[in-house]
UniProtKB/TrEMBL annotation, chain A:
Record-linked InterPro entries: MetI-like, MetI-like_sf, UgpAE/MalFG_permease
Domain of life: Bacteria
Name recorded for this polypeptide: ABC transporter permease subunit
Keyword flag Glycoprotein: no
Organism: Cohnella rhizosphaerae
Biological processes, Gene Ontology terms: transmembrane transport
Ranges that cross the membrane: 7-28, 74-95, 116-137, 157-183, 204-228, 264-289
From TrEMBL, chain B:
Keyword Zinc included in the entry's annotation: no
Organism: Cohnella rhizosphaerae
Parts of the chain that traverse the membrane: 78-97, 109-128, 140-161, 182-204, 257-277
Name assigned to this protein: Carbohydrate ABC transporter permease
A Pfam family the protein falls into: BPD_transp_1
One of the protein's GO biological processes: transmembrane transport
Topological relation to the membrane, as annotated: Multi-pass membrane protein
Top-rank taxon: Bacteria
PANTHER family referenced in this protein's UniProt entry, alphabetically: ABC TRANSPORTER PERMEASE PROTEIN MG189-RELATED-RELATED, POLYGALACTURONAN_RHAMNOGALACTURONAN TRANSPORT SYSTEM PERMEASE PROTEIN YTCP
One cellular component term from this protein's GO annotations in UniProt: plasma membrane
Localization per record: Cell membrane
Amino acid sequence: MIRRYYAYRYFFLMLLPVVAYFALFHYAPIYGVLMAFQDFRVLKGISGSEFVGMKHFRELFSGLYFVPVLKNTLIINAYKLLFGFPAPIVLALLINEVMRPAFKRIVQTISYLPHFLSWIVLSGIVIEALSPSRGPINIALMELGMKPVFFLADTDWFRTVLVSTAVWKNVGFSAIIYLAAIAGISGDMYEAAEVDGIGRLQKMYYITLPSIAPVIVIMLILTSGSIINDDFDQIFNLINANVSSVGDVISTYTYSEGIAKMNYSYAAAVGLFKNVAALVAVLSANFIARRFSDNTIL
Amino acid sequence: MKQRRMSDRLFSLVVYALLTGLALTIVLPMMQVLTISVSPLNVVNRYGFHFIPTAFDFSGYRQVFHKETIWTGYQNTLVRTILGTGITIVMTFLGAYPLSKRQLPNRAFWTGFVVLTMFFSGGLIPSYMLVKNIGLMNTVWSLVLPGAVSAFMLLIVRNFIAALPESLEESAKIDGANDLYILWKIVVPLSMPILATVALYAAVDHWNAWFDSMLYIQNEKKQVLQLILRKIIIDGTADPSTTGAADSMNAPTNSQAMKMAALVVTMLPIMCVYPFLQKYFVKGTLLGSVKG
């Protein structure tokens, strides 16, 4: 064995910094998770802090604060899946029906734009676009004789804003994979359908959609793991005190408890709970994927 | 038959209308940001739509360019993007090449060592403690090292290299080339397309990153552009705890033009570049989705 390693010594020399990187920046924090079972003190470190077992996890579920946050996370993510998952499929189907290449290219290029911008830039744009005094939506409402809506400060509207802006940001870029799948469909079927005098809507429904069904199933299984992982960048930049009751999610809660209030152990427990839940989600999704198709992620 | 053609035409109309609608939801807010950024106060405050400028006043941009933090932010973002992207390419390749060798001893173990990190992580607090403990706080290294290698990207590059024809390396070996020569003259040039994709993704991520800068950098002069922008447009309002809502409560002052100018200054580089690079990004997503 040693001889084989010696024969490949230069390859391991290459691999060494990468292994060191993963050990330090990925495995060391996994070891650091121990602080979730301690009353961690910065000066004492992990080795010196006192172990308190499941104390913080009990607090998580008996305390007043975490359960509403978990509920918000699940609700917001469920809506994001419900609308965000079909949206790029619909967009891909629509783009596929466009016969003018120039129009197609322009729409696609525009639709990618939000994907390349940070949530800080996007939140600036969203705040301006939803502004009660200048936002075009509210201007339109007022033109129609209605009262302006404080979208970002209204608990009835805030989740809608989160879901719709998330869909808006991602729909264009996520459609790429479906467009690629559509491009792979053989033209014969469409020709046969043409001979039978079938309309375009029917072609889309009876040929295109079933042909990309396998891709849809795989994407659904892959994204279903994201039910517990919320979008910190988006929510942190759009949330405010008026709507934190409906918008505070696990990652923003972890940040405010751990970094702002320095409850390190408690926040680490919140993070650990989320990571375990995410792992379970991914593994079960992969298990389902293995049952139903050859395409797995593991 | 004629009726069918009518329904097809109606269908076409609906398709074009929906797509134009989607494009407008992106274009109109952008035009509003641009318009407000160049408008004088009385136009900003005027009731009505603000999609096209009616009067020009560049004081917003003057205010932005007088802020020192905008310049330091730009510089810090550039530094982290170049340095971070460089480190990412080198490290990703260093990991991917050995792992692409089928005969590598315990290849499955070493691959697993990398892949495992895709499925479980310590989370925010332990990572924060780590960066603090190893003394990276307030340095550019806290921005470029923790996320230097993505296990997912590494796997994609590994698969790409593994799929290169082996005969190329073998014939070079027969011609007497040593391993280093093969690596540098054959493997690296052939891997360029995939490494370029990795670089593009890393560069965009670095350009847009801000949370690490907020966590690890206390000195405002060392903070990245995105965070400076966040301070201007979100925290810059009367009460930081009400962020977006504060904008809604207060009557807009001309600081609005300045905010929008800062927004334009931050997003302009990406907006100018991405249309020309989009085909590489498209290729990148497809590589990621077709897993071997």
